[in-house]
């Protein structure tokens, strides 16, 4: 195993897309940011220097961070932000994980432009559980705003209204030639006839789930969220923000140019969505290399923006590579509702949400508020009272028909608070994530920091243990770090709480985090202690 050192300078960089230039925040002036490539077992030491005018933190999405919660990164959860002019060194080891993960800013909406791939190759002297690919290519899906995304979210927070949507989707930072003014801003991936390549898809978009397809080529899924899967062949992928999927593609078509295209899966029912499409070009060695010239690329079939069936079919295809030893018996049976809601407008004020409200979101009716004086982990470690409470409810405070629309608002006014749920170190947790349709029915990509979990089952309607327990896959469920809770439906996940620390769980649509769709688990070992957690680094920022 090796130790790899990196310097990441967070800075403002002028970037032009859609014919408009503005300063975006980048790492080392690159957009997308630098790709990190390591082997399972290696240690990363990343010195982050903040030369931007915003607070920033970086998060290593999907990295287990065993005993190194201090390096996880969500601001005010495991660390205070790195102030402008400040720096912090993230140090952690990849333990047992292989595949594609990524890194991104975890402060306000900075991750709109601050992100990159984190590729973990098999550990020394071992290989992939599939045919060695000829080439490997990260394919990072993102979103582009003509405006500064921080201004977009600040305005929405001030008014209580829903923020603007982005101006384009992107592949490796480029919108692609179906957008205005983007002929040159198209990612081209050169390939050779007969080769089998590994494409590492990452959904780094801020607020949009995406379908992806490649014209005339099948994809064989071999990994998701850095866990190997039973190979399955499909023509469409669906990735929620935060999710990754590795696919093998054999270049078995006539030498030509083929579009890789991605378009929104906008599951909010009844809401028509701007379904513009981002493209990259898979280009055979055919002497047709100038974008915008030669034969026009072939376009793939993509599902409609509201094709919930296509999204479910994809997630149903995912299975662990081998039979797994599911953690059990269950010590903690949790039932969390996830969904949007509305806050009343403060008296005498005018608010921008529907019917003079403020947009809100919650888990079990608690709308998460970040502290600002300490991170939760620092407050716990130093026993500073008053920063958070440990009364996050194990089950919803009110029972009702969660998937019904137009439920009386009096039933479901979220409570804004910083509540955590305590888990005993080593306990086995089973969590039902139940979508609610109070304000809108939507698929929520729920991510847990510091853990991978097994997805035992997914379904539509209200979860009903009496009949749905029978649907659990206890043989080869997929292991992920982000689960798309189906629109008007539920998902059941299971994990063992074997990593001490404070671990954020949230919807990976950033607009929903802004509205409070988050909570944190506090995993203690010993008695009220974090005994096996490493000491905080000396340069850990203070608030
Ligand atoms: Cu990509 Cu809090 O996560």
UniProtKB/TrEMBL annotation:
<keyword id="KW-0560">Oxidoreductase</keyword>
<keyword id="KW-0677">Repeat</keyword>
<dbReference type="GO" id="GO:0052716">
    <property type="term" value="F:hydroquinone:oxygen oxidoreductase activity"/>
</dbReference>
<dbReference type="InterPro" id="IPR017761">
    <property type="entry name" value="Laccase"/>
</dbReference>
<comment type="function">
    <text>Lignin degradation and detoxification of lignin-derived products.</text>
</comment>
<keyword id="KW-0439">Lignin degradation</keyword>
<dbReference type="InterPro" id="IPR011707">
    <property type="entry name" value="Cu-oxidase-like_N"/>
</dbReference>
<keyword id="KW-0186">Copper</keyword>
<comment type="similarity">
    <text>Belongs to the multicopper oxidase family.</text>
</comment>
<dbReference type="Pfam" id="PF07731">
    <property type="entry name" value="Cu-oxidase_2"/>
</dbReference>
<feature type="domain" description="Plastocyanin-like">
    <location>
        <begin position="392"/>
        <end position="525"/>
    </location>
</feature>
<dbReference type="GO" id="GO:0048046">
    <property type="term" value="C:apoplast"/>
</dbReference>
<keyword id="KW-0732">Signal</keyword>
<dbReference type="InterPro" id="IPR001117">
    <property type="entry name" value="Cu-oxidase_2nd"/>
</dbReference>
<dbReference type="InterPro" id="IPR002355">
    <property type="entry name" value="Cu_oxidase_Cu_BS"/>
</dbReference>
<dbReference type="Pfam" id="PF07732">
    <property type="entry name" value="Cu-oxidase_3"/>
</dbReference>
<dbReference type="InterPro" id="IPR033138">
    <property type="entry name" value="Cu_oxidase_CS"/>
</dbReference>
<feature type="domain" description="Plastocyanin-like">
    <location>
        <begin position="136"/>
        <end position="286"/>
    </location>
</feature>
<protein>
    <recommendedName>
        <fullName>Laccase</fullName>
        <ecNumber>1.10.3.2</ecNumber>
    </recommendedName>
</protein>
<dbReference type="InterPro" id="IPR008972">
    <property type="entry name" value="Cupredoxin"/>
</dbReference>
<dbReference type="GO" id="GO:0005507">
    <property type="term" value="F:copper ion binding"/>
</dbReference>
<dbReference type="InterPro" id="IPR045087">
    <property type="entry name" value="Cu-oxidase_fam"/>
</dbReference>
<keyword id="KW-0479">Metal-binding</keyword>
<dbReference type="GO" id="GO:0046274">
    <property type="term" value="P:lignin catabolic process"/>
</dbReference>
<dbReference type="InterPro" id="IPR034288">
    <property type="entry name" value="CuRO_1_LCC"/>
</dbReference>
<dbReference type="Pfam" id="PF00394">
    <property type="entry name" value="Cu-oxidase"/>
</dbReference>
<dbReference type="InterPro" id="IPR034289">
    <property type="entry name" value="CuRO_3_LCC"/>
</dbReference>
<dbReference type="InterPro" id="IPR034285">
    <property type="entry name" value="CuRO_2_LCC"/>
</dbReference>
<feature type="domain" description="Plastocyanin-like">
    <location>
        <begin position="10"/>
        <end position="124"/>
    </location>
</feature>
<keyword id="KW-0052">Apoplast</keyword>
<dbReference type="InterPro" id="IPR011706">
    <property type="entry name" value="Cu-oxidase_C"/>
</dbReference>
<keyword id="KW-0964">Secreted</keyword>
């Amino acid at each position: 195993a090796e130790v790899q050192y990196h310097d990441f300078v967070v800075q403002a960089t002028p970037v032009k897309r859609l014919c408009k230039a503005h300063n975006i925040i980048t790492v080392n002036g690159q957009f997308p940011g630098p790709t990190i490539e390591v082997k399972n077992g290696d240690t990363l030491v990343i010195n982050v220097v903040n030369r931007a005018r915003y607070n920033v933190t970086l998060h290593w999405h999907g990295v287990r961070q065993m005993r190194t919660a201090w390096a996880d990164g969500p601001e005010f959860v495991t660390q205070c932000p790195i102030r402008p002019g400040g720096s912090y060194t993230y140090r952690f080891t990849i333990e047992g994980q292989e595949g594609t993960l990524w890194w991104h800013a975890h402060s306000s909406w900075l991750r709109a432009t601050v992100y990159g791939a984190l590729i973990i190759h098999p550990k020394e002297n071992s290989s992939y559980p599939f045919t060695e690919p000829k080439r490997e290519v990260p394919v990072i899906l993102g979103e582009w705003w003509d405006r500064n995304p921080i201004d977009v979210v600040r305005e929405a927070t001030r008014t209580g209204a829903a923020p603007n949507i982005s101006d384009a989707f992107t592949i490796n930072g480029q919108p692609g030639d179906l957008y205005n003014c983007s002929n040159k801003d198209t990612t081209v991936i050169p390939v050779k006839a007969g080769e089998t390549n590994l494409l590492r898809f990452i959904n780094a978009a801020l607020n949009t789930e995406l379908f992806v397809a490649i014209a005339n080529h099948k994809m064989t899924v071999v990994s998701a969220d850095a866990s190997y899967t039973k190979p399955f062949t499909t023509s469409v992928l669906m990735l929620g923000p935060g999710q990754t999927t590795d696919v093998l593609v054999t270049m078995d078509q006539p030498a030509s140019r083929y579009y890789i295209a991605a378009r929104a899966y906008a599951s909010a029912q009844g809401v028509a969505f701007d379904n513009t499409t981002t493209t990259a070009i898979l280009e055979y060695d055919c002497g047709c290399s100038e974008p915008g010239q030669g034969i026009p690329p072939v376009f793939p079939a993509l599902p409609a923006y509201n094709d919930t069936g296509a999204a479910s079919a994809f997630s149903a295809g995912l299975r662990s590579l081998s039979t797994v030893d599911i953690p059990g018996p269950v010590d903690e049976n949790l039932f969390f509702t996830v969904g949007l809601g509305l806050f009343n407008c403060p008296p005498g004020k005018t608010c921008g949400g529907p019917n003079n409200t403020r947009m809100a979101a919650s888990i079990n009716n608690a709308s998460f508020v970040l502290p600002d004086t300490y991170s939760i982990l620092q407050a716990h470690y130093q026993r500073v009272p008053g920063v958070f409470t440990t009364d996050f409810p194990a089950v919803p405070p009110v029972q009702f028909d969660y998937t019904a629309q137009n439920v009386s608002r009096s039933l479901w006014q979220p409570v804004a608070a910083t509540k955590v749920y305590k888990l005993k170190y080593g306990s086995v947790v089973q969590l039902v994530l139940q979508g609610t349709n109070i304000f809108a029915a939507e698929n929520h990509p729920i991510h847990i920091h510091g853990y991978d979990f097994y997805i035992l089952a997914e379904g539509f309607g209200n979860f009903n243990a009496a009949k749905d327990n029978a649907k659990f896959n206890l043989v080869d469920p997929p292991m992920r770090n982000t689960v798309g809770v189906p629109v008007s439906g539920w998902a059941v996940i299971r994990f063992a709480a074997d990593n001490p620390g404070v671990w954020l769980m949230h919807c990976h649509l950033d607009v929903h985090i802004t509205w409070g769709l988050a909570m944190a688990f506090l995993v203690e070992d010993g008695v009220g202690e974090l005994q096996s957690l490493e000491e905080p680094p000396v340069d850990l920022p203070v608030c």
